[in-house]
Amino acid sequence: MGALHEGHCSLIRLARERSDLVITTIFVNPTQFGEEEDFDRYPRNLERDVALAKGAGTDIVFAPSPEAMYPGGSVTAVIVEKITEVLEGAIRPGHFRGVATVVAKLLNITRPDCAVFGQKDAQQVVVVRRMVRDLNIGVEIVVAPTVREADGLAMSSRNVYLTPAQRAEAPVLHRSLQHAEALIRGGERNPETIRRSVMRLISAASSGVVQYVSLADEGDLEECRMLSRGDRILVSLAVRFGSTRLIDNCVLDVSS
Amino acid sequence: MGALHEGHCSLIRLARERSDLVITTIFVNPTQFGEEEDFDRYPRNLERDVALAKGAGTDIVFAPSPEAMYPGGSVTAVIVEKITEVLEGAIRPGHFRGVATVVAKLLNITRPDCAVFGQKDAQQVVVVRRMVRDLNIGVEIVVAPTVREADGLAMSSRNVYLTPAQRAEAPVLHRSLQHAEALIRGGERNPETIRRSVMRLISAASSGVVQYVSLADEGDLEECRMLSRGDRILVSLAVRFGSTRLIDNCVLDVSS
Fold it and tell me: Residue A156: inside a domain, yes or no?
């Protein structure tokens, strides 16, 4: 979606390492924004993005207009059920329909051998992987780790919306994920206990309003009832600072 | 969907003329049948189909199992709105969702330069063309004319369901399309008049129950209010003989 930061650049560098030819798609996709969301004010700076993408090793930047992507009479969508009805999908109805459709289009246009996505948008990764499998799209999905600021805040194009006070508080998301991990390493196996502890930490340390804290199966995003050895779980959360939503996550293996 | 007849073979021969390599997909797709429809009794004879497909010039037959096409956890569908809500789509809810999804999958698996469909399923052609355009699937859709029995009945795998008496009546579909064409050539411009005349002809000449007679724009399937010179219209109809549904159609250019 453009507004490139070091997180995006890390995806391009990973693609560069694996490929003879790297395409970066830049498209602020209107169909994945809700009515009340920030499509109009979403940061755009194509010239700067192209320079950053080239610097990170891209060969081609594909930056179509909305009219080119959705010509008159467009009536087709890709829908992914179940795994899009929770977490971000529950809060942002229609979001993943827009994401799945535009990703299918971009993959069909560019026809890559592999496509790199960021772990920052964890549910998007799960949805894209499932869509690719279900529709037999012949592409390998590669996931790059979340890139963080020095204080732990996950890089995001939306961080620019934060006031200085909110920006100072925002690293609490990452700290709270580390707290959840420490609880699990310490033997806690009740997701509800962990959820409550994480929410308390965020509320005590910031003005952020927690939208969800989730401990879910990494594959199908079903909420865990009790953690067991061998589980691979996605700990994810969404917190609002004023009108700015921040998300973050980590994937954990529950060991003995 | 297998149960190959001369209509299918004509598609394979057309593909053969245009291509170095021809793949025939044979798959009775469960997701495009309604609850009350004939999935279980749909005619299947893979050995015979493979022989016919090879005889018509196919290099490869791709005949996957339902389990291979829809492994556990499949949650993705391709939906096409508006043009799937009329005609066959109005009578067969979910049908075109199943068709669009399986065609997207088969195109992704086989990755052809062109794919041949039969004009017999006119709405399917419109839906597949739109989906291919909307999702940027890089394939040329080629349409082959309907192949008919000597008495005009359009070839269909479902013709085997007809009793001898119904089979004797069934050519009335084609005759009624010719009647509609004659009315238009004769200057009739009111679709409602043509529809009523076609329905009278079918009712007078057969036991068939008319489900619809449609005169619609060939591109977006919107029903015509009045025919005008230069219109390209799809005349289509569906008639039930007992529990067997037959469909047929023709495309007409309205001239002066």
Answer: no
User: Beta-carbon neighbour count of residue B163 at 10 Å?
Assistant: 12
Average pLDDT over residues A205-233: 97
Q: What is the largest CA-CA distance in chain B?
A: 56
Give the residue from chain A lying closest to B139, CA to CA: A108
Residues A124 and A191 occupy one common structural domain: no
> pLDDT tens digit string along B93-121?
999 999 999 999 999 999 999 999 999 99
Examine the residue annotation and report whether B5 is marked as an active-site residue of this protein: no
Mutate to test the interface with B, among A25, A29, A69, A75 (most CBs of B within 10 A): A75
Domain at A183, CATH number? 3.30.1300.10
Tokens of A34: 């809700």
- For residues B49 and B88, state if they share a domain: yes
Decide which of A110, A144, A178 is a domain's last residue. Answer: A144
For the question of whether the overall pTM of this predicted structure is more than 0.90, the answer is yes
Full domain range(s) for residue B27 = 6-144
Picking from B169, B159, B156, the residue whose alpha carbon sits closest to that of residue B208 is B169
Q: Do B76 and A78 touch (CB under 8 A)?
A: yes
Distance from CA of A134 to the nearest CA of B (A): 6
Chain A positions in Cβ-Cβ contact with residue B71 (cut-off 8 Å):
133
